[in-house]
């Protein structure tokens, strides 16, 4: 003790005084001012440090020097720590002063709602695009030729009466109509696109039907067409199966059963069902009739193809459990905002 | 078509197959089984009753009062909603306490304070027939008070209800279905034999086919020794199960033959048609009272059956007339079995909206060579109730050159395999077809080189006369596929050799819808059919031409839209009426404008159909609408001149603009005209944007080329001008841009300030940012640019605000 020349109590006192003063600082500025008073040029600790040079006892000077430095360092640490505390407190206070009730500012208006038919339409397109199909389109006002004659239904063909056709007053009477199915796009694609063809054709179609819970005069279909060398009935069944799993889920399966359409032969209806479910009829399909390939400018002796089609509205109706198709077309925002 | 299981079993041994197996097999053959019904399950408490009298009640329009006698000496009163019974008819009475097959309990229930002591039943209600339109009339020999099911001798049976497609005439007869099913299961098919009895002496009724195309065969066979009465019970049951009504043994035999062979026929009282038959088209103005009692006006395309004196006695193939019906006293009949052209029958039946069991079959095409068999079957069936039946020889049977001949088709086995993906050989294909009546003979067929499979094996296939639908090679391929079984043809995923994807236009359409959805707009799909005047009410195309429908369902939906605006206004108006909040809707759909200068002789010509986008928001002003457009142009990289001088029809006179590119109109933007809105019951403002989406989506945007970003600092200043109202902000902004030239990085309007309404000027404040790519701009450069800006503003008539 004697070696330090009695400076120890002085250093201790200075440190204690500084500590006490710092604790009283109420903000960062005050803290810095107080810190300067106790560790700056005018401070007692620095004065002690300056007085050390006069000490003759080398060992004692060393010890005293270390003690002063330690005190100054302790003071720095204390200041830094206290500074963080004060800044936090200040920020906390600032935050408290500008409190917001976020529920007060919650705006309920958001993005609009796409029509559920559009949603189904795009989901279907996406599945087929993933299977390597392109998407084709055609006009809704069509020629009688593309809608019927080219599809193996020449004038007076009995199957024409299956379609309750709406005719448009345009050109030669009976020559222009609202397409009754998306199949005329097949003819356009065959005539205009390069082979091979892997295409789906979604679109709006029209029938002279009184609206009820399951029928609308204006509705939507999607149709697929594949024309390539070596396409067989097995490819049709395989493609329907792949689509069924991709769209409905891997536990779904499909089956084809014979049916009749003038534009395909052999023709089939296709049904789907879930693992434990019942068969549900989905749409029609078949191998493209040689007459239709010919109407599309394709040699049926070289190429074969298949086509399939089904309703889009029903997909939306069943997905969302809509009881009445007319609800989907009432344009009632209370209905639309659910989806 | 109702197919009765026990009836099928008469022709094919199907005993070991369950009902479900049979239904599945029939469906897998293309004769879709829509329902499987169990018939003939007795219902306790339903007894035979005689109708004593009926009476209308003044206050009950839809029901009448019926008094019945159920054989127990008690007169019962019931209310009944069907009117097809007459005094003396025998009907099924569900007595009080009966539990009906559908679960209903028959309780004492009153109408107008008068109790009903039971219920009269239709065939459908009892599950014995499909007819639900009237009360089931029971055979006259049924014993009063007996359970109806016992009285009918009903036995449990299964009925398959088939949805038969147009290409399967054989599917509308039990024989055809049995043949197909027997082939499917590989069991023996045994068609029934006709009447083997020796015919009586020759009796000829003269027949003259006048229209040889519409009627190509008309057989009239005379039969005598007939006693009109009831059919044997088992035959009556069959008729009921098949969905028809037993009448008497002659009419029943006629129906049974049709339900079995698919060949309709008609039995006339021979004494009433002794003058013979003439088959001709109707004359203009001619009329006929058909069996259903309806007096029908005929068309010159309708085929008639007339007597020898040219008096119409029936609509060929559709429905007979009243006068020549057999009566209970008839002892001789003339049986007509004919072949009529399917198209003619179809058109007549469509025109009269009269689809009968006969017309449905003639439309599909009956067997032109099945007449003899059909006549023989009629005799065999009738003989069961008329043992003294005589079939007279010398039947008239004229045929014309238009009677179809069975086709013979060359079938390449390679073609079968190419379409079906099978590896069948000639023998297998031949076996599959032979089982269903196609006669196959081996034939080498020269294979065209371009055909992918180079095997000459083939068959010469004679199509059976009952399958007139088979005319081409591909029809035979389908027959092979059906009998191999679609399930066994395999499933193989075709590998597209191309990348799938949406076209650029389709991608842009999705992006456009996405942007509009992000505005908060929801997608409407209004009816594209409008009423006359809807366009005008919406302020579009006043006085212009529109496309209309030839055959609209209703006049209110007879006009094709050439603008989305009328439909959208209706949708908006609907939501306004329902007091919806935030009404913000859009539609992206096709419009069909009429076109001037159309060459009406070009059959392939079509209207200028294109896509439009229409957005409407209630309670928003023109600023909202122009911001939609601004956002769309930013996303799509396409623009148009916002021309406020051209006020679009139906828009607000001072808050709207035409979006134009030179002469081409791309769309309209702004607020809708108050009067247009008022006409739709909308009081609030409506912001509206209409764009020709085909133009917007059809453009291919340029791919931006990267420019290096300047490393030098920008120089910024703001300028506020007092601008007179006549100077648009757009014009001032363009002038500033021009004055700044190449150094300008951004000139943007950031504040608009009006002192007061009615003031002729407002303050427009612009922020200007200058930057050079190669240097820091000097103060002098900035100052001179600023001065140029001010000068440009002043030149337009604006003054700089300090």
Describe the protein's topology.
The complex is a heterodimer of chains A (339) and B (802).
Chain A: H1 8-24, H2 28-39, H3 44-51, H4 58-97, H5 116-130, E1 134-135, E2 141-143, H6 144-147, E3 176-178, H7 184-192, E4 197-206, E5 218-228, H8 233-248, E6 253-261, E7 264-273, E8 280-288, H9 290-295, E9 304-311, H10 313-319, H11 325-328, H12 333-336
Parallel strand pairs in A: 1-4
Antiparallel strand pairs in A: 2-3, 4-5, 5-9, 6-7, 7-8, 8-9
Chain B: E1 2-4, H1 5-11, H2 19-28, E2 32-39, E3 46-57, E4 60-69, E5 75-80, E6 90-94, E7 109-111, E8 114-116, E9 119-120, H3 123-126, H4 148-151, E10 157-163, H5 174-185, E11 207-209, E12 215-224, H6 233-241, H7 249-261, E13 266-269, E14 277-281, E15 287-289, E16 295-297, E17 303-307, E18 312-315, E19 319-320, E20 333-340, H8 342-351, H9 357-364, H10 371-383, E21 390-391, E22 408-412, H11 413-420, H12 426-434, E23 439-444, E24 457-462, H13 473-484, H14 504-518, E25 522-523, E26 529-530, H15 534-537, E27 547-548, E28 559-560, H16 565-577, E29 584-591, E30 610-618, H17 622-636, E31 641-643, E32 651-661, E33 664-672, H18 674-679, E34 686-692, H19 693-698, E35 715-724, H20 729-740, E36 744-753, E37 761-770, H21 779-795, E38 799-800
Parallel strand pairs in B: 11-14, 25-29
Antiparallel strand pairs in B: 1-10, 2-10, 3-4, 3-6, 4-5, 6-9, 7-8, 12-20, 12-21, 13-20, 14-17, 15-16, 17-18, 18-19, 22-24, 23-24, 26-28, 27-28, 29-30, 30-34, 31-32, 32-33, 33-34, 35-37, 35-38, 36-37
Helix pairs in contact in B: 1-5, 7-10, 8-9, 11-13, 14-17, 20-21
